[in-house]
Amino acid sequence: MKESKILDHITELVEEEQRIYSNEATIEQNKDRLKHIAEQLDQCWDLLRQRRAKLEFAADPSTASMRDVKTVEGYTG
């Protein structure tokens, strides 16, 4: 996936998240969706970091791959 596509997807997810949060009445009923959005955002940011690290070290960024939620959410910093 190209960087521009990743960034476009991040933008779409953030906009959806903001729409949900902008209406307090919908937050509780969309709790599962918000969790899924947060997980997808973490995956996208992770993929973007992988691509950029590969570029920095003269590797092919197209070899970066989306990691599963469990892996990405398991990072402790």
Short description:
The protein is mostly helical and 77 residues long. 71% of the residues lie in helices and 0% in strands. It has one domain.
Give an account of the 3D structure:
It is a single chain. By secondary structure, the protein is mainly alpha-helical. The chain is 71% helix and 0% strand. It contains four helices and no strands. It is elongated. The two termini are 25 Å apart. The model has no long low-confidence stretch (mean pLDDT 93).
Query: Major beta sheet, specifics?
Result: none
Q: Quote the average pLDDT.
A: 93
Structural class: mainly alpha
Total of DSSP H or I helical runs spanning 4+ residues: 4
**Number of E-type strands:** 0
Would you list the SSEs in sequence order as H and E? HHHH
Distance separating the two termini: 25 Å
The general outline is elongated
List keywords for this structure.
single chain; 77 residues; mainly alpha
Layout of secondary structure:
Blueprint: H1 3-22, H2 24-27, H3 31-56, H4 69-73
Helix pairs in contact: 1-3
